Automatic annotation (TrEMBL):
InterPro entries found in the cross-reference section: 6-PGluconate_DH-like_C_sf, 6PGD_dom2, Mannitol_DH, Mannitol_DH/Oxidoreductase, Mannitol_DH_C, Mannitol_DH_CS, Mannitol_DH_N, NAD(P)-bd_dom_sf
Transmembrane intervals: none
Catalytic reaction list: D-mannitol 1-phosphate + NAD(+) = beta-D-fructose 6-phosphate + NADH + H(+)
Name of the protein in question: Mannitol-1-phosphate 5-dehydrogenase
Domain Mannitol dehydrogenase C-terminal per the UniProt entry, residue ranges: 290-479
UniProt domain Mannitol dehydrogenase N-terminal: residue ranges: 30-281
Provenance organism: Corynebacterium ammoniagenes DSM 20306
Keywords recorded for this protein, A-Z: NAD, Oxidoreductase
Signal sequence range: none
Record EC number: 1.1.1.17
Family affiliation: Belongs to the mannitol dehydrogenase family.
Amino acid sequence: MTTTIQLSQQTLSDLPVVGPDYDRSQVSAGVVHFGVGGFHRAHQALYIDKLMRQGDAMDFGIIGMGVMPSDVRRRDALKGQDCLYTLTEKTPDGQHSSRVIGSIIDYIYAPEDPAAAVSVLADAAIKIVSLTVTEGGYNFDHVRGEFNFDNRHVAADIADLKAGKTDELRTFYGLITAGLIARRAAGTVPFTVMSCDNIQGNGEMAHRMFLSFAGAIDAELAQWIDTHVPFPNSMVDRITPETTDADRAELPYDDAWPVVCEDFTQWVLEDKFAAGRPAFDKVGVELVDDVVPYELMKLRLLNASHQGLCYFGYLAGHRYVHDVMADQRFADFLLAYMEQEGTPSLRPLPGVDLDAYRHQLIARFGNAAIKDTVARLCAESSDRIPKWLLPAVRENLATGQAPVTLSAAIVASWARYAEGVDEHGQPIDINDRMAERLKENAAGNREDILAFLRDHEVFGDLVDNAEFTEAYAAALRSLHEVGSEATLDALLAAHN
């Protein structure tokens, strides 16, 4: 009977992969991170691990902090192996490179003891609180961009903090704000709140949302946060699929939660920190004064293109992204969208070859080694489309500098996908916080071609714009009548 080795600090020297070559017992906490998923572990945690291998950032060890029920499983997986995990990078030609990452040193599931979690955040040693809580985690209205005070957990946290209570906090807003309250009372330098989510102006968005939350507790607290707490913008990029059992089986030892990702990575960060930061520039992070042009490039080209391929691709029967990209019509469609509608909405980026960037994205999407799923890209669309695609649509409509035909077709493909059945009659499992409402809206597509667009919470007044709705309606009718591939062919023929 063969016994496999379990990944742990004790077994590191027995594993056939490179592990941390630094003394982890000498690493102290300097970062608390909310949203410890695959992306964080393939990105921010990797950059800090690289610094630690150079003898730097030993006081910037990461404490993961979870607030969602699913975070219990993540906590148990990581803590069961001393917070170590394997990161495997896969190139398009099938080359694999694995290493064990050691920069995460603890994981706290905050709901088990919120007051203890707040005490960690209040510790002066914590210099950065970072976030990858997904696009939907920021709790704001898509159309108005205002904080949603109707969320019952948020409302409960506000009431508790008004009363000076921290033992039942439920949200990262409540926990982080409680940590700042404690630091303000102690006269301690506040931590920096660093958003790493795919939202335009992610730091500015986090800033506004935290000010709204804090202002509901105490106006003077909000003013103190506004004056003293930095919220740097950032642009982060690395395609990181969800971990599968096949990923675990590829390793010659037991790792409960490995990560697989592409070999490309990028991080552009506004250099604005209150209590210091790791020497990120030593490991390839671009530290800049203005991240917004880079954010727009990534959101409106990469992220919006992901939406451009996923619904059309899923309807056509593809389940892996590389299979979608093996069909040249999809590559041509995405390039046409990026060149004609995405790029005109960008800000100047001196020194960046946008044509090379666009073609690099097509190559990255086609990386078969990482087995990225189409379903992953289709998930949580009600949070993604309004943040990634619709801002470019609105800008192009307002300026008239570019058409919106292909963007409208992408939205139409989402509307067709939300009907819940693909072109082969197979049911679609819609993974979205608004799934039932989206399906109900899409059920009216054939009787009222604009039914899906009439949801103002998602689309605002876009349904009233004739230029957009004409292109949208034409694409949706075509999807119903001839299917996704023929619809793409017609769109490309019209644009060539």
